[in-house]
């Protein structure tokens, strides 16, 4: 059909208002499972945070003669003193005076909106660092202090010599440590990559349980979450409680082993560079301790702009690493 003669059309009209939605869509994930669901929250009082761990002597046969004199005292183990450095993580927001007052779509205050974004970014950065393999760094006037991240703390559980090895077979090794403290600049050594198996998972749970842990959380990235869903018995299941509901559940949110029920928690911020891992965790044995919790500071005004700094000073506390296990060197 022909266009009406001399009709005014939107393509040439002047003065039509723009149709800009008053909603800003942001798909970037902000969940931080380790900080929010797993780790406790504590308080630090110095730039080096210290704590102690201990264990009982191994159980053994114990019988004495009637009337026997007290035996000679055996050597008694003392506590082990652990430490981790406090790390400062920060984000900055800056907005000009003009941008703050002009009419905007989707937010009333540009400064508040940018502070909110920076705070969420900071939380994501913290989760990414905590769950990774960052080495402990003592810091100096020219070098940042850094804490030993989770992958550096696993010392007791893991072997590369058994069929169900939890570390890569060729060169995989835990981070070097002194008295259970990850050495400065020491990181786990990567080994041969492979796919996870249910045998590995069962073995990891067993090792943590043998040491006295209660590993109720299995944390992994998305790719390992999918691979775990393919374990024997975890597929082709109908939703419970409704015989008429024919939907299939092809995912594993909990795993029941000989030692209880374990919640499977996916984490988008675990390492996915050249290899991945699965962590079998006893939650109460991990904590994120703060010298300065999330804080917003105004920065001195220079010119026609408003500036804010969002900051946290914190560290990772591994109260007793033997109660958790890592399955390392897994394929992407």
- Overall mean pLDDT: 86
Run of helices and strands: HEEEEHHEEHEHEEEEEEEE
The residue ranges in which pLDDT falls below 50 over 5 or more consecutive positions are: 234-239
Count of beta strands = 15
Radius of gyration: 27 Å
Number of H- or I-type helical stretches: 5
The computed structural class is alpha+beta
Q: Main sheet, how many strands, which sense, barrel? A: 5 strands, mixed
Helix content: 10-25%
> How would you sum up the global shape?
elongated
Order of neighbouring strands in the sheet with most strands: 10-11-7-12-15
Strand content: 25-35%
Give the terminus-to-terminus CA distance: 57 Å
Task: Report on the architecture of this protein.
- The strands form five sheets. A five-stranded mixed β-sheet has the order 10-11-7-12-15. Strands 1-13-14-4 form a four-stranded mixed β-sheet. A two-stranded antiparallel sheet has the order 2-3.
- A hairpin with a 5-residue loop joins strand 13 and strand 14 (305-318).
- By secondary structure, it is α+β, with helices and mostly antiparallel strands.
- The chain has helices at 33-38, 97-101, 110-130, 198-210, 222-229; strands at residues 40-43, 48-53, 80-85, 87-96, 177-178, 181-182, 217-220, 237-238, 248-249, 254-257, 260-266, 276-281, 286-299, 305-318, 325-330.
- The chain is built from five helices and 15 strands.
